[in-house]
Prior knowledge:
The chain is an alpha/beta fold. It is built from six helices and six strands, in the order βααββαβαβαβα. It has a six-stranded parallel sheet with strand order 3-2-1-4-5-6, sandwiched between helices. The longest helix is centred in the N-terminal third of the chain and has 17 residues, at 32-48. It is globular and about 40 Å long. The termini are close together. Mean pLDDT is 93; it is low at 1-5.
Amino acid sequence: MSSTSAKKAPVIIIDLQTNMFDGRIEPPLHEADLLTDRARKVIDWARRDGRAIAFVRHDGPKGDPLAPGEPGWPVWPALGQRDDEPTFAKSVRDAFSNPELGKWIESQGAPEVVILGAQTDFCIAGTVEGAMAAGLKVTVVSDAHSTLDQPQENAAAIIRRYNAQFARAGANLVTSEALTGSLWPHRV
């Protein structure tokens, strides 16, 4: 951060829910195991660094694998969410559609956020846009968001394309290794 009195950017983990990983109803996200490892690395780093962490959970409609109460709805247990790390619900792409998330971020006192999760081309893109519209600086962990293959484009290509779009829109892009290791010179 630019000031010693300013708080550190909180980490926002978008829609990393059981259905995205377990393969029971839908295929797992692209490189799901790597995504879990990278997300865990960022979560552990944030905890060591005294950063606030929030999880966002998509609430799908009745009958959807992400509907409240369905087996695929909970935050992926492998991420190790703690009781003091809040979960904010949403039912559209932009996590900022839930005003409680915005209030929580404001209470952290930092003018920026770190974003990772799923799906790149839906809720990550929508939340990056929402954060920027809210006047926040955004850092996207470029190798810790994922999606599914689409008929016209594979997941890896979608991720690359959206990373480029995020950068053009003004987001900082950083890998999980650079963010959590000695390679990270940025002030986030």
